Amino acid sequence: MQRLVRCLVIRGDLTRIDAYLLEKGIEPTVGILLLKQAILGVAQTRELELESRSLYRKHRHLSDHFRVVSKEAEFFQYLRNKMVGHIKADLVEKTLEWKPETVVMLSKDSDLMQTYLLNFFVLETAINTYVDGDGKHKAFESETDLGYPPDFQRFMQSLTRTVQGCVKFLTELEAVLRIEV
């Protein structure tokens, strides 16, 4: 029963976040918070999927729904672990190295735009540190510059596709869990 409750909470959050981000995008106030919440929701979906694999024996179709987004969900779980759930010190050090404009921003009083940009700088660094053992990027074919519109769109399309895939999986999981409870 607890899995059903978690499923409903996560799906409800992701559904509303997806609708908001599609309508308003990532604006400096609520948008950046919802982007981070979407990453958290995808990671929670991945964890719930791992816990629910025993259901696949009786409900084989369930695994098909998650398989579509499993690689991207792994990527967003990495982002959750690196910069959403925790802001890792090594990630901030890398951000200061790769985005020297961060240091200049720190000399100013904190404001909404500064917070927005710092979030994007740290997020961009986290994206670019998601590499395999050979240093090859695992999520995208090249480095990501969130200030470059095609890269930003690529990231947002990946997030949207993953959130919507998670919602579909969670809808199917709900149906199965209601039978199993």
Secondary structure elements and pairings:
Blueprint: H1 2-24, H2 30-51, H3 61-67, H4 70-84, H5 89-98, H6 101-106, H7 112-128, H8 149-180
Question: Can you summarize this structure?
Answer:
The chain is mainly alpha-helical and 181 residues long. Helices cover 73% and strands 0% of the residues.
Structure overview:
- The chain has 8 helices and no strands.
- Helix 1 packs antiparallel against helix 8 (149-180), helix 4 packs across helix 7 (112-128) and helix 5 packs across helix 7 (112-128).
- The protein has 181 residues and is mainly alpha-helical.
- The relative contact order is 0.17.
- 73% of the residues lie in helices and 0% in strands.
N-C termini distance: 6 Å
What spatial form do the alpha-carbon principal axes imply?
elongated
Name the helicity range. Answer: over 70%
Rg measurement, Å:
18 Å
Run of helices and strands: HHHHHHHH
* Poorly predicted sequence stretches spanning 5 or more consecutive residues: none
Mean pLDDT rating: 90
Number of strands: 0
Count the helices. How many? 8
Strand fraction equals under 5%
The largest β sheet comes out as: none
Secondary-structure content class:
mainly alpha
Features:
181 residues, 73% helix, single chain, mainly alpha
